[in-house]
Amino acid sequence: MEPERPKEKVPIPGADGWLRVTTTHGNVFYAQKKTKRSEWTIPDEIRDHVEAMEASMQQERHAKRARTEPVTEPVDVVKEEVIVAEPVPDPEPVVPEPAPVALPPAPDLSFEEGRALFMGMLTSLNGTPSEVNPMAPWDQELPKFVHLPAYSSLRSSRDREDVFNEWCKLRLREKREKTTRRAPAPAPTHPSDCERQLRSLFKEQIVSSRTTFDDAKKQFGTDPRFTAVQNPKAVFNTWMQELVEIKRRLARNADTAFAALLTERLLEPASLLGEEGIQGEPDKDQAAQIWLKAKKTPGLVEDKRYDAVGSATRRAALFATWLRDGVRVQTAVEQAPQEVPQAKESESSEERRQRALQNRQAQVLRDQTRMRERNRAARFDLDSERRETDFRQLLLDVVSDPTLTWEDAQGLLSRDDRFRPAAMRDTLQDEQKAQFFAEHIARLQNKKRDQLARLFSKHTKDEHGRERLDTAMDTVLANIRTDEGFDAGLKRFLGEDASVHRSRTTTLEREYEAWDAWRQTCAKSEFQDMLRENAFVTFWGGLRKEKEQHTEQPSGAEPIPEDEEADEEAVSVLDMASNVDLREMESVLRRLEEENCTGVDAVYQLHDVAKSKNIIAPQ
Description:
There is one protein chain. The protein is mainly alpha-helical. Among the domains are: 1-97, Ubiquitin Ligase Nedd4, Chain: W; 106-180, Orthogonal Bundle (Arc Repressor Mutant, subunit A), CATH 1.10.10; 377-515, no CATH class; 534-552 and 562-612, no CATH class. The chain has helices spanning 47-67, 77-85, 111-124, 138-141, 157-180, 191-205, 213-220, 224-227, 232-265, 269-275, 284-294, 304-308, 312-343, 349-398, 406-413, 430-458, 473-481, 488-493, 508-533, 535-551, 565-578, 582-594, 599-612, and strands at residues 6-11, 18-23, 28-32, 37-39. It has a 4-stranded antiparallel sheet, with no helix packed on it. The radius of gyration is 45 Å and the shape is flat. 12% of the residues are buried. Keywords: Repeat.
Protein backbone atom coordinates (compact mmCIF):
# COMPACT_ATOMS: atom_id res chain seq x y z
CA MET A 1 0.00 0.00 0.00
CA GLU A 2 1.37 3.42 -1.05
CA PRO A 3 2.07 5.92 1.73
CA GLU A 4 -0.52 8.64 2.23
CA ARG A 5 0.55 12.05 0.86
CA PRO A 6 -1.18 15.43 0.39
CA LYS A 7 -2.88 15.64 -3.01
CA GLU A 8 -4.84 18.90 -2.99
CA LYS A 9 -4.50 21.98 -0.77
CA VAL A 10 -7.32 24.54 -0.71
CA PRO A 11 -6.90 27.80 1.27
CA ILE A 12 -9.81 28.61 3.57
CA PRO A 13 -10.81 32.27 3.07
CA GLY A 14 -10.50 34.41 6.18
CA ALA A 15 -9.07 31.58 8.30
CA ASP A 16 -5.61 33.04 8.98
CA GLY A 17 -3.63 30.71 6.72
CA TRP A 18 -5.56 27.46 7.36
CA LEU A 19 -5.62 24.95 4.49
CA ARG A 20 -8.02 22.14 3.69
CA VAL A 21 -5.80 19.24 2.55
CA THR A 22 -7.03 16.15 0.67
CA THR A 23 -4.69 13.12 0.69
CA THR A 24 -4.03 10.52 -1.99
CA HIS A 25 -6.28 8.12 -0.05
CA GLY A 26 -9.20 10.54 -0.10
CA ASN A 27 -8.91 11.61 3.52
CA VAL A 28 -9.27 15.28 4.54
CA PHE A 29 -7.45 17.18 7.29
CA TYR A 30 -6.84 20.82 8.20
CA ALA A 31 -3.41 22.44 8.63
CA GLN A 32 -1.94 25.85 9.48
CA LYS A 33 1.54 26.34 8.11
CA LYS A 34 2.81 29.09 10.40
CA THR A 35 1.92 27.24 13.61
CA LYS A 36 2.66 23.76 12.11
CA ARG A 37 -0.67 22.57 13.50
CA SER A 38 -2.79 19.89 11.82
CA GLU A 39 -6.15 18.40 12.82
CA TRP A 40 -8.26 15.60 11.39
CA THR A 41 -11.42 17.31 12.63
CA ILE A 42 -12.47 20.90 11.96
CA PRO A 43 -11.00 23.22 14.63
CA ASP A 44 -13.62 25.26 16.43
CA GLU A 45 -12.01 28.61 15.59
CA ILE A 46 -12.39 28.08 11.79
CA ARG A 47 -15.62 26.10 11.73
CA ASP A 48 -17.67 29.07 10.44
CA HIS A 49 -15.13 29.78 7.66
CA VAL A 50 -15.11 26.13 6.57
CA GLU A 51 -18.90 26.00 6.45
CA ALA A 52 -18.98 29.20 4.39
CA MET A 53 -16.37 27.79 1.97
CA GLU A 54 -18.27 24.52 1.60
CA ALA A 55 -21.52 26.41 0.95
CA SER A 56 -19.79 28.47 -1.76
CA MET A 57 -18.33 25.32 -3.35
CA GLN A 58 -21.79 23.69 -3.25
CA GLN A 59 -23.31 26.64 -5.13
CA GLU A 60 -20.56 26.46 -7.77
CA ARG A 61 -21.20 22.75 -8.29
CA HIS A 62 -24.95 23.37 -8.73
CA ALA A 63 -24.27 26.14 -11.24
CA LYS A 64 -21.90 23.93 -13.21
CA ARG A 65 -24.48 21.15 -13.30
CA ALA A 66 -27.13 23.56 -14.61
CA ARG A 67 -24.82 24.65 -17.42
CA THR A 68 -24.03 21.08 -18.51
CA GLU A 69 -27.68 19.76 -18.53
CA PRO A 70 -28.87 18.70 -22.04
CA VAL A 71 -31.38 20.90 -23.95
CA THR A 72 -34.94 19.55 -23.97
CA GLU A 73 -35.92 21.03 -27.39
CA PRO A 74 -36.93 18.48 -30.07
CA VAL A 75 -34.08 17.44 -32.34
CA ASP A 76 -33.97 15.56 -35.61
CA VAL A 77 -33.40 11.85 -35.88
CA VAL A 78 -29.86 12.09 -37.14
CA LYS A 79 -28.71 14.24 -34.26
CA GLU A 80 -30.51 11.97 -31.82
CA GLU A 81 -28.60 8.96 -33.16
CA VAL A 82 -25.34 10.81 -32.78
CA ILE A 83 -26.22 11.61 -29.21
CA VAL A 84 -26.97 7.97 -28.51
CA ALA A 85 -23.74 6.78 -30.09
CA GLU A 86 -21.57 9.33 -28.31
CA PRO A 87 -23.39 10.55 -25.18
CA VAL A 88 -22.10 13.57 -23.45
CA PRO A 89 -20.83 12.43 -20.02
CA ASP A 90 -22.81 13.79 -17.12
CA PRO A 91 -20.92 15.76 -14.56
CA GLU A 92 -19.71 13.86 -11.63
CA PRO A 93 -22.51 13.69 -9.02
CA VAL A 94 -21.95 15.55 -5.84
CA VAL A 95 -22.09 13.20 -2.90
CA PRO A 96 -23.61 15.07 0.01
CA GLU A 97 -21.77 14.79 3.24
CA PRO A 98 -23.45 12.38 5.67
CA ALA A 99 -25.68 14.02 8.21
CA PRO A 100 -24.48 13.53 11.74
CA VAL A 101 -26.17 10.67 13.52
CA ALA A 102 -27.99 11.67 16.68
CA LEU A 103 -26.17 9.82 19.45
CA PRO A 104 -26.60 10.32 23.16
CA PRO A 105 -23.84 12.31 24.82
CA ALA A 106 -20.74 10.33 25.69
CA PRO A 107 -21.36 10.41 29.49
CA ASP A 108 -24.78 8.74 28.96
CA LEU A 109 -23.18 5.72 27.28
CA SER A 110 -21.58 2.98 29.33
CA PHE A 111 -18.19 1.67 28.32
CA GLU A 112 -19.67 -1.57 26.94
CA GLU A 113 -22.24 0.34 24.84
CA GLY A 114 -19.58 2.68 23.48
CA ARG A 115 -17.32 -0.29 22.75
CA ALA A 116 -20.08 -2.04 20.77
CA LEU A 117 -20.80 1.10 18.72
CA PHE A 118 -17.11 1.68 18.00
CA MET A 119 -16.49 -1.92 16.89
CA GLY A 120 -19.65 -1.85 14.77
CA MET A 121 -18.34 1.28 13.05
CA LEU A 122 -15.03 -0.47 12.22
CA THR A 123 -16.85 -3.56 10.93
CA SER A 124 -19.17 -1.47 8.73
CA LEU A 125 -16.13 -0.27 6.75
CA ASN A 126 -15.30 -3.83 5.55
CA GLY A 127 -15.57 -4.10 1.78
CA THR A 128 -15.45 -0.32 1.26
CA PRO A 129 -12.58 1.86 0.02
CA SER A 130 -12.04 2.91 3.64
CA GLU A 131 -11.74 -0.65 4.96
CA VAL A 132 -9.53 -0.79 8.04
CA ASN A 133 -6.33 -2.79 7.68
CA PRO A 134 -5.93 -4.87 10.90
CA MET A 135 -2.16 -5.12 10.30
CA ALA A 136 -1.68 -1.33 10.21
CA PRO A 137 -1.05 0.81 13.32
CA TRP A 138 -3.65 3.01 14.95
CA ASP A 139 -2.16 6.32 13.71
CA GLN A 140 -2.22 5.22 10.07
CA GLU A 141 -5.84 3.97 10.07
CA LEU A 142 -7.30 6.80 12.19
CA PRO A 143 -8.14 9.15 9.22
CA LYS A 144 -10.50 6.53 7.75
CA PHE A 145 -13.05 6.78 10.54
CA VAL A 146 -12.22 9.84 12.68
CA HIS A 147 -15.02 11.82 10.97
CA LEU A 148 -17.72 9.21 11.59
CA PRO A 149 -20.31 9.93 14.32
CA ALA A 150 -19.66 6.68 16.22
CA TYR A 151 -16.05 7.76 16.76
CA SER A 152 -17.17 9.83 19.78
CA SER A 153 -18.99 6.92 21.44
CA LEU A 154 -15.90 6.32 23.62
CA ARG A 155 -14.72 9.06 25.95
CA SER A 156 -10.91 8.92 25.68
CA SER A 157 -8.35 8.29 22.95
CA ARG A 158 -6.82 5.52 25.06
CA ASP A 159 -10.15 3.63 25.11
CA ARG A 160 -10.57 4.06 21.36
CA GLU A 161 -7.08 2.72 20.67
CA ASP A 162 -7.61 -0.27 23.00
CA VAL A 163 -10.92 -1.18 21.32
CA PHE A 164 -9.29 -0.69 17.90
CA ASN A 165 -6.51 -3.16 18.80
CA GLU A 166 -9.08 -5.65 20.11
CA TRP A 167 -11.06 -5.38 16.87
CA CYS A 168 -7.88 -5.91 14.83
CA LYS A 169 -7.17 -9.17 16.71
CA LEU A 170 -10.70 -10.43 16.03
CA ARG A 171 -10.46 -9.41 12.38
CA LEU A 172 -7.12 -11.19 11.90
CA ARG A 173 -8.51 -14.33 13.55
CA GLU A 174 -11.52 -14.22 11.23
CA LYS A 175 -9.31 -13.90 8.15
CA ARG A 176 -7.02 -16.67 9.36
CA GLU A 177 -9.96 -19.05 9.82
CA LYS A 178 -11.13 -18.34 6.28
CA THR A 179 -7.73 -19.00 4.75
CA THR A 180 -7.02 -22.17 6.77
CA ARG A 181 -10.40 -23.73 6.04
CA ARG A 182 -9.59 -26.60 3.73
CA ALA A 183 -11.70 -27.54 0.78
CA PRO A 184 -12.77 -31.20 0.69
CA ALA A 185 -10.26 -33.34 -1.16
CA PRO A 186 -11.49 -34.61 -4.54
CA ALA A 187 -12.43 -38.25 -4.50
CA PRO A 188 -9.96 -40.41 -6.47
CA THR A 189 -11.21 -42.72 -9.14
CA HIS A 190 -8.90 -45.75 -8.85
CA PRO A 191 -9.80 -48.16 -5.99
CA SER A 192 -6.21 -48.54 -4.83
CA ASP A 193 -5.78 -44.76 -4.68
CA CYS A 194 -8.99 -44.49 -2.67
CA GLU A 195 -7.79 -47.05 -0.12
CA ARG A 196 -4.37 -45.41 0.06
CA GLN A 197 -5.86 -41.99 0.78
CA LEU A 198 -8.26 -43.44 3.35
CA ARG A 199 -5.37 -45.17 5.08
CA SER A 200 -3.48 -41.86 5.12
CA LEU A 201 -6.54 -40.25 6.69
CA PHE A 202 -6.67 -42.94 9.40
CA LYS A 203 -2.94 -42.62 10.00
CA GLU A 204 -3.20 -38.84 10.54
CA GLN A 205 -6.33 -38.81 12.69
CA ILE A 206 -6.58 -42.13 14.56
CA VAL A 207 -3.86 -42.57 17.17
CA SER A 208 -5.69 -44.68 19.77
CA SER A 209 -5.89 -48.46 19.43
CA ARG A 210 -9.23 -48.41 21.31
CA THR A 211 -11.03 -46.59 18.49
CA THR A 212 -13.90 -48.60 16.98
CA PHE A 213 -15.13 -48.55 13.42
CA ASP A 214 -18.38 -46.88 14.52
CA ASP A 215 -16.36 -44.03 16.01
CA ALA A 216 -14.38 -43.64 12.79
CA LYS A 217 -17.56 -43.75 10.70
CA LYS A 218 -19.18 -41.07 12.85
CA GLN A 219 -16.10 -38.85 12.53
CA PHE A 220 -15.21 -39.35 8.84
CA GLY A 221 -18.55 -40.49 7.36
CA THR A 222 -18.95 -37.33 5.28
CA ASP A 223 -15.34 -37.20 4.06
CA PRO A 224 -15.02 -38.03 0.31
CA ARG A 225 -12.00 -40.23 1.04
CA PHE A 226 -14.17 -42.38 3.30
CA THR A 227 -17.23 -42.61 1.03
CA ALA A 228 -15.13 -43.41 -2.07
CA VAL A 229 -14.01 -46.79 -0.65
CA GLN A 230 -16.41 -49.71 -1.06
CA ASN A 231 -15.21 -51.53 2.09
CA PRO A 232 -13.77 -48.92 4.50
CA LYS A 233 -14.05 -51.34 7.44
CA ALA A 234 -11.36 -53.59 5.95
CA VAL A 235 -9.00 -50.62 5.56
CA PHE A 236 -9.79 -49.61 9.15
CA ASN A 237 -9.07 -53.10 10.53
CA THR A 238 -5.76 -53.26 8.64
CA TRP A 239 -4.66 -49.91 10.06
CA MET A 240 -5.68 -50.90 13.60
CA GLN A 241 -3.52 -54.06 13.41
CA GLU A 242 -0.57 -51.97 12.25
CA LEU A 243 -1.24 -49.41 14.98
CA VAL A 244 -1.24 -52.10 17.68
CA GLU A 245 2.09 -53.46 16.44
CA ILE A 246 3.58 -49.96 16.32
CA LYS A 247 2.49 -49.27 19.89
CA ARG A 248 3.90 -52.59 21.11
CA ARG A 249 7.24 -51.90 19.44
CA LEU A 250 7.39 -48.41 20.94
CA ALA A 251 6.50 -49.80 24.38
CA ARG A 252 9.30 -52.40 24.17
CA ASN A 253 11.80 -49.75 23.14
CA ALA A 254 10.63 -47.49 25.99
CA ASP A 255 11.01 -50.34 28.52
CA THR A 256 14.54 -51.09 27.32
CA ALA A 257 15.53 -47.42 27.44
CA PHE A 258 14.06 -47.09 30.95
CA ALA A 259 16.10 -50.04 32.20
CA ALA A 260 19.23 -48.47 30.73
CA LEU A 261 18.34 -45.20 32.49
CA LEU A 262 18.05 -46.98 35.84
CA THR A 263 21.45 -48.58 35.33
CA GLU A 264 23.07 -45.23 34.51
CA ARG A 265 21.51 -43.11 37.27
CA LEU A 266 21.08 -45.45 40.24
CA LEU A 267 23.35 -47.58 42.36
CA GLU A 268 23.58 -51.27 41.73
CA PRO A 269 20.50 -53.28 42.80
CA ALA A 270 22.49 -55.04 45.51
CA SER A 271 23.58 -51.68 46.99
CA LEU A 272 20.00 -50.34 46.98
CA LEU A 273 18.78 -53.47 48.77
CA GLY A 274 21.69 -53.34 51.20
CA GLU A 275 20.79 -49.78 52.24
CA GLU A 276 17.30 -51.01 53.16
CA GLY A 277 18.64 -54.12 54.90
CA ILE A 278 16.96 -56.54 52.44
CA GLN A 279 18.55 -59.88 51.63
CA GLY A 280 17.69 -61.69 48.42
CA GLU A 281 14.95 -60.73 45.97
CA PRO A 282 12.55 -58.03 47.25
CA ASP A 283 8.80 -58.50 47.30
CA LYS A 284 6.30 -56.10 45.72
CA ASP A 285 5.93 -53.80 48.75
CA GLN A 286 9.67 -53.60 49.38
CA ALA A 287 10.33 -52.74 45.73
CA ALA A 288 7.69 -50.01 45.90
CA GLN A 289 9.31 -48.45 48.99
CA ILE A 290 12.74 -48.47 47.36
CA TRP A 291 11.29 -46.93 44.19
CA LEU A 292 9.79 -44.00 46.14
CA LYS A 293 13.30 -43.07 47.32
CA ALA A 294 15.13 -43.96 44.12
CA LYS A 295 13.07 -41.73 41.82
CA LYS A 296 14.21 -38.69 43.81
CA THR A 297 17.73 -39.21 42.40
CA PRO A 298 18.83 -36.01 40.57
CA GLY A 299 18.52 -36.23 36.80
CA LEU A 300 16.25 -39.29 36.76
CA VAL A 301 12.84 -37.70 36.36
CA GLU A 302 14.16 -34.98 34.02
CA ASP A 303 15.42 -37.55 31.48
CA LYS A 304 13.14 -38.01 28.46
CA ARG A 305 13.45 -41.79 28.80
CA TYR A 306 11.57 -41.49 32.10
CA ASP A 307 8.49 -39.90 30.46
CA ALA A 308 8.66 -42.33 27.53
CA VAL A 309 7.02 -44.88 29.85
CA GLY A 310 3.61 -43.24 30.07
CA SER A 311 2.28 -44.97 33.19
CA ALA A 312 3.55 -44.55 36.75
CA THR A 313 2.42 -48.10 37.54
CA ARG A 314 4.39 -49.41 34.58
CA ARG A 315 7.53 -47.58 35.76
CA ALA A 316 7.20 -49.09 39.23
CA ALA A 317 6.81 -52.58 37.73
CA LEU A 318 9.85 -52.10 35.48
CA PHE A 319 11.89 -50.94 38.48
CA ALA A 320 10.88 -54.05 40.45
CA THR A 321 11.88 -56.26 37.51
CA TRP A 322 15.18 -54.42 37.21
CA LEU A 323 15.86 -54.99 40.92
CA ARG A 324 15.12 -58.72 40.75
CA ASP A 325 17.19 -59.19 37.60
CA GLY A 326 20.10 -57.35 39.20
CA VAL A 327 19.92 -59.56 42.30
CA ARG A 328 19.91 -62.68 40.16
CA VAL A 329 22.91 -61.51 38.15
CA GLN A 330 24.76 -60.62 41.36
CA THR A 331 23.99 -64.05 42.81
CA ALA A 332 25.26 -65.73 39.66
CA VAL A 333 28.44 -63.66 39.76
CA GLU A 334 29.05 -64.57 43.40
CA GLN A 335 28.62 -68.25 42.69
CA ALA A 336 30.79 -68.18 39.57
CA PRO A 337 34.21 -67.94 41.34
CA GLN A 338 33.63 -71.30 43.02
CA GLU A 339 33.47 -73.01 39.62
CA VAL A 340 36.12 -70.96 37.87
CA PRO A 341 39.12 -72.74 39.39
CA GLN A 342 37.69 -76.07 38.26
CA ALA A 343 36.84 -74.85 34.77
CA LYS A 344 39.93 -72.70 34.27
CA GLU A 345 42.69 -74.15 36.32
CA SER A 346 45.16 -72.99 33.75
CA GLU A 347 44.28 -69.26 34.24
CA SER A 348 47.42 -67.43 35.34
CA SER A 349 47.64 -64.89 38.10
CA GLU A 350 48.34 -62.16 35.53
CA GLU A 351 45.00 -62.80 33.81
CA ARG A 352 43.17 -62.73 37.13
CA ARG A 353 44.88 -59.45 37.98
CA GLN A 354 43.88 -57.91 34.63
CA ARG A 355 40.24 -58.99 35.08
CA ALA A 356 40.12 -57.52 38.60
CA LEU A 357 41.64 -54.27 37.30
CA GLN A 358 39.01 -54.01 34.55
CA ASN A 359 36.20 -54.57 37.05
CA ARG A 360 37.66 -51.90 39.31
CA GLN A 361 37.96 -49.41 36.44
CA ALA A 362 34.33 -50.05 35.46
CA GLN A 363 33.21 -49.47 39.04
CA VAL A 364 35.21 -46.22 39.27
CA LEU A 365 33.70 -45.04 35.98
CA ARG A 366 30.18 -45.66 37.28
CA ASP A 367 30.94 -43.78 40.51
CA GLN A 368 32.36 -40.83 38.59
CA THR A 369 29.29 -40.72 36.37
CA ARG A 370 26.97 -40.64 39.37
CA MET A 371 29.08 -37.93 41.00
CA ARG A 372 28.94 -35.76 37.86
CA GLU A 373 25.17 -36.13 37.71
CA ARG A 374 24.81 -35.11 41.34
CA ASN A 375 27.03 -32.06 40.78
CA ARG A 376 25.01 -31.14 37.71
CA ALA A 377 21.79 -31.41 39.69
CA ALA A 378 23.22 -29.20 42.44
CA ARG A 379 24.24 -26.56 39.88
CA PHE A 380 20.80 -26.78 38.33
CA ASP A 381 19.19 -26.07 41.71
CA LEU A 382 21.44 -23.05 42.23
CA ASP A 383 20.62 -21.75 38.75
CA SER A 384 16.92 -22.23 39.44
CA GLU A 385 17.15 -20.14 42.61
CA ARG A 386 19.02 -17.40 40.73
CA ARG A 387 16.42 -17.36 37.93
CA GLU A 388 13.59 -17.13 40.43
CA THR A 389 15.34 -14.31 42.32
CA ASP A 390 15.92 -12.33 39.10
CA PHE A 391 12.31 -12.71 37.96
CA ARG A 392 10.89 -11.76 41.37
CA GLN A 393 13.09 -8.64 41.38
CA LEU A 394 11.81 -7.83 37.87
CA LEU A 395 8.24 -8.00 39.18
CA LEU A 396 9.13 -5.65 42.04
CA ASP A 397 10.74 -3.17 39.61
CA VAL A 398 8.00 -3.16 36.95
CA VAL A 399 4.65 -4.29 38.36
CA SER A 400 3.05 -2.03 40.96
CA ASP A 401 -0.62 -2.15 39.89
CA PRO A 402 -2.61 -4.81 41.83
CA THR A 403 -5.31 -4.86 39.12
CA LEU A 404 -2.90 -5.83 36.32
CA THR A 405 -3.50 -9.18 34.60
CA TRP A 406 -0.84 -11.61 33.39
CA GLU A 407 -1.78 -11.03 29.75
CA ASP A 408 -1.33 -7.25 30.08
CA ALA A 409 1.82 -7.56 32.19
CA GLN A 410 3.69 -9.62 29.59
CA GLY A 411 3.93 -6.57 27.33
CA LEU A 412 5.58 -4.56 30.11
CA LEU A 413 7.86 -7.33 31.32
CA SER A 414 9.05 -8.33 27.85
CA ARG A 415 10.87 -5.01 27.49
CA ASP A 416 13.35 -6.12 30.16
CA ASP A 417 16.13 -8.59 29.35
CA ARG A 418 15.42 -10.47 32.57
CA PHE A 419 12.07 -11.62 31.16
CA ARG A 420 13.67 -13.60 28.32
CA PRO A 421 17.45 -14.00 28.88
CA ALA A 422 19.75 -14.66 25.95
CA ALA A 423 20.62 -18.15 27.21
CA MET A 424 17.66 -20.52 27.06
CA ARG A 425 18.90 -22.42 30.10
CA ASP A 426 18.40 -19.21 32.14
CA THR A 427 14.72 -18.92 31.17
CA LEU A 428 11.91 -19.93 33.52
CA GLN A 429 8.92 -21.89 32.33
CA ASP A 430 5.80 -19.86 31.46
CA GLU A 431 3.85 -21.65 34.21
CA GLN A 432 6.45 -20.61 36.80
CA LYS A 433 6.38 -17.00 35.61
CA ALA A 434 2.59 -16.91 35.84
CA GLN A 435 2.72 -18.41 39.34
CA PHE A 436 5.29 -15.87 40.60
CA PHE A 437 3.26 -13.06 39.03
CA ALA A 438 0.09 -14.26 40.80
CA GLU A 439 1.94 -14.34 44.14
CA HIS A 440 3.27 -10.81 43.53
CA ILE A 441 -0.21 -9.49 42.68
CA ALA A 442 -1.62 -11.15 45.83
CA ARG A 443 0.99 -9.33 47.95
CA LEU A 444 0.12 -6.00 46.32
CA GLN A 445 -3.58 -6.59 46.93
CA ASN A 446 -2.93 -7.47 50.58
CA LYS A 447 -1.10 -4.16 51.01
CA LYS A 448 -4.10 -2.31 49.61
CA ARG A 449 -6.42 -4.24 51.93
CA ASP A 450 -4.24 -3.34 54.93
CA GLN A 451 -4.48 0.30 53.91
CA LEU A 452 -8.27 -0.03 53.65
CA ALA A 453 -8.44 -1.73 57.07
CA ARG A 454 -6.74 1.28 58.67
CA LEU A 455 -9.29 3.59 57.07
CA PHE A 456 -12.18 1.36 58.18
CA SER A 457 -10.88 1.31 61.75
CA LYS A 458 -10.42 5.09 61.72
CA HIS A 459 -13.99 5.86 60.67
CA THR A 460 -15.74 3.33 62.95
CA LYS A 461 -14.51 4.92 66.20
CA ASP A 462 -16.72 7.03 68.47
CA GLU A 463 -15.86 10.30 70.20
CA HIS A 464 -13.94 8.36 72.89
CA GLY A 465 -11.69 6.68 70.32
CA ARG A 466 -13.31 3.25 70.73
CA GLU A 467 -14.34 1.11 67.76
CA ARG A 468 -18.07 0.53 67.42
CA LEU A 469 -19.62 -2.55 65.85
CA ASP A 470 -22.95 -0.85 65.12
CA THR A 471 -21.65 1.94 62.87
CA ALA A 472 -23.68 2.19 59.64
CA MET A 473 -21.80 1.09 56.57
CA ASP A 474 -23.12 3.96 54.40
CA THR A 475 -21.76 6.51 56.88
CA VAL A 476 -18.36 4.85 57.05
CA LEU A 477 -17.98 4.54 53.26
CA ALA A 478 -19.09 8.16 52.69
CA ASN A 479 -16.45 9.39 55.15
CA ILE A 480 -13.76 7.19 53.60
CA ARG A 481 -14.41 8.51 50.10
CA THR A 482 -13.73 12.04 51.34
CA ASP A 483 -10.67 11.04 53.38
CA GLU A 484 -7.24 12.14 52.15
CA GLY A 485 -5.94 8.62 52.70
CA PHE A 486 -8.32 7.33 50.01
CA ASP A 487 -5.79 7.97 47.26
CA ALA A 488 -5.76 7.21 43.54
CA GLY A 489 -4.13 3.83 44.09
CA LEU A 490 -7.03 2.65 46.26
CA LYS A 491 -9.57 4.04 43.78
CA ARG A 492 -7.88 2.14 40.96
CA PHE A 493 -7.78 -1.05 43.05
CA LEU A 494 -11.52 -0.74 43.83
CA GLY A 495 -12.50 0.16 40.26
CA GLU A 496 -13.62 3.70 41.15
CA ASP A 497 -11.15 5.42 38.83
CA ALA A 498 -13.16 6.86 35.94
CA SER A 499 -10.15 6.77 33.59
CA VAL A 500 -9.79 2.99 33.89
CA HIS A 501 -12.31 0.78 32.09
CA ARG A 502 -11.62 -2.72 33.34
CA SER A 503 -13.84 -5.31 34.87
CA ARG A 504 -13.95 -4.80 38.63
CA THR A 505 -12.34 -7.44 40.78
CA THR A 506 -13.60 -5.92 44.04
CA THR A 507 -15.51 -2.93 45.41
CA LEU A 508 -15.31 -0.73 48.49
CA GLU A 509 -18.58 -2.19 49.79
CA ARG A 510 -17.34 -5.78 49.37
CA GLU A 511 -14.06 -5.04 51.12
CA TYR A 512 -15.85 -3.37 54.03
CA GLU A 513 -18.24 -6.29 54.45
CA ALA A 514 -15.32 -8.74 54.55
CA TRP A 515 -13.45 -6.56 57.08
CA ASP A 516 -16.54 -6.11 59.22
CA ALA A 517 -17.22 -9.86 59.25
CA TRP A 518 -13.64 -10.49 60.38
CA ARG A 519 -13.99 -7.82 63.09
CA GLN A 520 -17.26 -9.31 64.34
CA THR A 521 -15.64 -12.73 64.59
CA CYS A 522 -12.67 -11.36 66.54
CA ALA A 523 -14.95 -9.42 68.90
CA LYS A 524 -17.03 -12.49 69.70
CA SER A 525 -13.89 -14.52 70.34
CA GLU A 526 -12.48 -11.87 72.69
CA PHE A 527 -15.78 -11.55 74.54
CA GLN A 528 -16.07 -15.32 75.01
CA ASP A 529 -12.52 -15.43 76.39
CA MET A 530 -13.38 -12.71 78.87
CA LEU A 531 -16.49 -14.57 80.00
CA ARG A 532 -14.49 -17.74 80.49
CA GLU A 533 -11.89 -15.93 82.57
CA ASN A 534 -14.38 -13.74 84.62
CA ALA A 535 -11.59 -12.97 87.10
CA PHE A 536 -13.25 -9.80 88.35
CA VAL A 537 -16.48 -11.64 89.25
CA THR A 538 -14.51 -14.24 91.21
CA PHE A 539 -12.51 -11.48 92.94
CA TRP A 540 -15.50 -9.45 94.08
CA GLY A 541 -17.44 -12.58 95.03
CA GLY A 542 -14.56 -13.69 97.29
CA LEU A 543 -14.40 -10.29 98.97
CA ARG A 544 -18.13 -10.31 99.56
CA LYS A 545 -17.94 -13.71 101.25
CA GLU A 546 -15.03 -12.51 103.39
CA LYS A 547 -17.12 -9.46 104.44
CA GLU A 548 -19.95 -11.72 105.53
CA GLN A 549 -17.56 -13.83 107.63
CA HIS A 550 -16.07 -10.65 109.17
CA THR A 551 -19.47 -9.31 110.24
CA GLU A 552 -20.39 -12.67 111.81
CA GLN A 553 -17.43 -12.73 114.30
CA PRO A 554 -18.32 -13.87 117.88
CA SER A 555 -18.71 -11.22 120.55
CA GLY A 556 -15.73 -12.50 122.59
CA ALA A 557 -13.28 -11.99 119.75
CA GLU A 558 -10.68 -9.27 119.90
CA PRO A 559 -11.61 -6.11 118.02
CA ILE A 560 -9.74 -5.23 114.83
CA PRO A 561 -7.16 -2.54 115.42
CA GLU A 562 -8.25 0.68 113.75
CA ASP A 563 -4.99 2.61 113.85
CA GLU A 564 -3.29 0.60 111.10
CA GLU A 565 -3.75 1.90 107.55
CA ALA A 566 -3.55 -1.52 105.95
CA ASP A 567 -6.38 -2.82 108.11
CA GLU A 568 -8.44 0.27 107.37
CA GLU A 569 -7.97 -0.25 103.61
CA ALA A 570 -8.92 -3.92 103.97
CA VAL A 571 -12.11 -2.99 105.81
CA SER A 572 -12.98 -0.33 103.21
CA VAL A 573 -12.49 -2.84 100.38
CA LEU A 574 -14.71 -5.32 102.21
CA ASP A 575 -17.34 -2.61 102.61
CA MET A 576 -17.17 -1.92 98.88
CA ALA A 577 -17.56 -5.63 98.16
CA SER A 578 -20.85 -5.67 100.08
CA ASN A 579 -22.27 -3.24 97.49
CA VAL A 580 -21.42 -5.48 94.51
CA ASP A 581 -24.46 -7.04 92.87
CA LEU A 582 -23.13 -10.10 91.03
CA ARG A 583 -26.47 -10.72 89.37
CA GLU A 584 -26.45 -7.26 87.84
CA MET A 585 -22.93 -7.84 86.49
CA GLU A 586 -24.01 -11.14 84.95
CA SER A 587 -27.01 -9.46 83.32
CA VAL A 588 -24.70 -6.76 81.90
CA LEU A 589 -22.39 -9.43 80.48
CA ARG A 590 -25.23 -11.30 78.81
CA ARG A 591 -26.66 -8.10 77.35
CA LEU A 592 -23.23 -7.22 75.95
CA GLU A 593 -22.96 -10.67 74.42
CA GLU A 594 -26.35 -10.25 72.72
CA GLU A 595 -25.30 -6.81 71.38
CA ASN A 596 -22.00 -8.25 69.97
CA CYS A 597 -19.92 -5.73 71.93
CA THR A 598 -16.16 -6.05 71.96
CA GLY A 599 -14.15 -6.89 75.07
CA VAL A 600 -13.17 -3.23 75.38
CA ASP A 601 -16.82 -2.10 75.35
CA ALA A 602 -17.62 -4.68 78.03
CA VAL A 603 -14.90 -3.37 80.34
CA TYR A 604 -16.10 0.23 79.94
CA GLN A 605 -19.74 -0.63 80.66
CA LEU A 606 -18.80 -2.72 83.71
CA HIS A 607 -16.69 0.25 84.85
CA ASP A 608 -19.85 2.45 84.70
CA VAL A 609 -21.78 -0.12 86.75
CA ALA A 610 -19.03 -0.13 89.38
CA LYS A 611 -19.16 3.67 89.62
CA SER A 612 -22.91 3.63 90.16
CA LYS A 613 -22.44 1.21 93.09
CA ASN A 614 -19.65 3.33 94.64
CA ILE A 615 -17.19 0.48 94.10
CA ILE A 616 -14.92 2.89 92.22
CA ALA A 617 -14.68 6.51 93.20
CA PRO A 618 -15.78 8.86 90.41
CA GLN A 619 -13.01 11.00 88.90
